[in-house]
Design brief:
The structure is a homodimer of 144-residue chains. Chain A has one domain: Orthogonal Bundle (Arc Repressor Mutant, subunit A). Helices cover 68% and strands 8% of the residues of chain A. Chain A has six helices and three strands; from the N terminus they run ααβααββαα. Chain A has a three-stranded antiparallel beta sheet. In chain A, a hairpin with a 7-residue loop joins strand 2 and strand 3. In chain A, helix 2 crosses helix 5 and helix 3 crosses helix 4. Chains A and B meet through helix 1, helix 2, helix 5 and helix 6 of A and helix 1, helix 2, helix 5 and helix 6 of B. The structure holds a DNA duplex (30 and 30 nucleotides).
Chain lengths: 144, 144
Amino acid sequence: MSAAESAVETIQREMTIFARRARASAGRMHPELSLVSYTLLGHLEERGGCRATDLAAHYALDKSTVSRQVAALERAGLIERRLDPEDHRVQVLHLTEAGQEILAQVTRSRRAAFRERLAGWPEEDLVRFAAYLERYNAGPAGAD
Amino acid sequence: MSAAESAVETIQREMTIFARRARASAGRMHPELSLVSYTLLGHLEERGGCRATDLAAHYALDKSTVSRQVAALERAGLIERRLDPEDHRVQVLHLTEAGQEILAQVTRSRRAAFRERLAGWPEEDLVRFAAYLERYNAGPAGAD
DNA sequence: AGTTCAAGTTGTACTATACAACTACAACCG
DNA sequence: CGGTTGTAGTTGTATAGTACAACTTGAACT
């Protein structure tokens, strides 16, 4: 096996390990915000509000799933819905202040975990690793 | 923000994207084998058989969860249980031939997906990326 | 023998998810 | 206009994966 093939093997294996661990630990680390909820809130913050349908499309989730997640987030007071005056079918979702706070807090704690894990890496390696990951994820969606 | 801090941000973000995508696509890509089942079968192959309790410990799953997964895999004919003659509480799990075949097939198809995604990467980058991932995952478990 | 420990199963509950059927509104077309 | 078709979102139903607790069975060690 060539060095390239064996590197691909390793990348596959390590990415799988990571995915499994992330799934296992996500719920336990931030009981207040599941990985999906966190991602949705993050998207809302980044975009400054969007529609449930956009979330579903972007994250390849069924609209019913998003609908229930959104309902839960609203119940928890983390987002609010504003009827689009242009189109009354549409509800534009926005973070509430509480939502912004929780998102910031979870982001901080996640960032701390990553930072700790990456402590001791030379800056050059961090930058290259980050670039590789971006390049990997920028590829066509669909493969793991 | 320093280059190192911003790289950590990027790593966190991209790893999260990856974990989300993996979860979303795993079920659709290999309906015959969930990510967990695949991982369990892989572990059995690697170890040449082990106990349900070992699986639970290694993957931080509840023993009841493993028990049901194992039951399903046995029902599907992919693994078999052998009573440990030394200790009749213990069932040593082994891949059946069908299990080995399916595992090999899913591994091939996953590998193909990764290979396609990484096509065009210079060998040097593949090797470095693989090394970074190994180093990342080798850190203390628990952080995402 | 009796107690304590370990492996595994089963009952129950919860979360995330998908698919399908439905409602409400919009847009378009004749 | 007014009917048809399309889009946003909700709700009913089903399934998978998971955890926790209670239980069964066998082992080990006094």
